[in-house]
Amino acid sequence: MNRRTLLRTLAGVTGATAILGRDAQNEELHPAGMGIKAIAFDGFVIFDPRSVEKRMVELLPDKGLELAKLWRTRQFEYSWLRTAGDRYVDFWQVIDDALQYSAKRLNVSLSNMQHDALMDSYRNLQPWPDVADGLAQLRRRGIKMAFLSNFTSAMLDANLKTAGLSEFFEFHMTTDRVRAYKPSPRAYEMGTEVLGLQKSTIAFAAFAPWDAVGAKWFGFPTVWVNRGAVQAEHLDAQPDAIAKDLSGLIEFIGERSRPM
Asked: What are the boundaries of each domain within the chain?
C-alpha cells in the first residue's frame, strides 16, 4: 500500500468513526422508545367550561346563553390580539374586558353582584368526570403533569383547590411567564424550559382544535381531547391523536412508551 492509498484509508476510517460517534451521541440523546415523560395540559382538558355557561343562564335567563357564547369567543380574540400587538395583560383581565364588551354588545346591564359572580365562575370550574381517575392512572405510570395554560397561576390554584386535584400537578406554566398567549411558540416553549425535557418526550393535551394545531406546529406530540366533538381546524398540522376523554390520552401515552 503506497502512502497516498494509506492516507485515503485512514481518512475514511476517521470519517466513519466520527459519523459513528455522532450516531452514538444521538442515540444517547434520543434513545429509541424513550417515550413520554410528561404531559402539559390545557386547563379545559381538566376543567369543564360549561359551568360558566350554566352560571350565566342562572343569573340572566333571557340572554345568558347568547352572552356566554360571545364572552367565550371574545376572550380568545382579545388574547390573540394582545399577543399580536405586544400589549399583554393577564387572562383575568382579558376575561373581564371580554365580559364588559359582550354585555354592552348585547345591551345587558350587569349589576356588580352579577359581574363578580360571573368572573368568580372561572375560579370554581368543575372537573370533568373522568379526571380524578385518569390523573391517578397517569401518576402511577410515573408521568409528570403540569399545566401549560392561558390561565393565571391564581386561577389554576383556585380551581385545583376546589376540585381537590392540587396533588397531581407539579408546575403551572402560565402564559404570564412569557407574556404571550397560545398559540405563540413562546408559550409552548415553556414546556421544554420548565420541565427540562426534550419536546419529543412532552405530550401536549389540547382542548381547543386551534391549540392542538399550535402545539403541533411547535413540535409537541399532541393529543386533542375533543370533549365537545367539535370540528377540527383546516390547517397544515393535525394532532397525533384525537380522544374524547382522558382514556384516549392514556392510551396514547402507553403506545409511545412501548419499546420501538
From this structure: 37-260
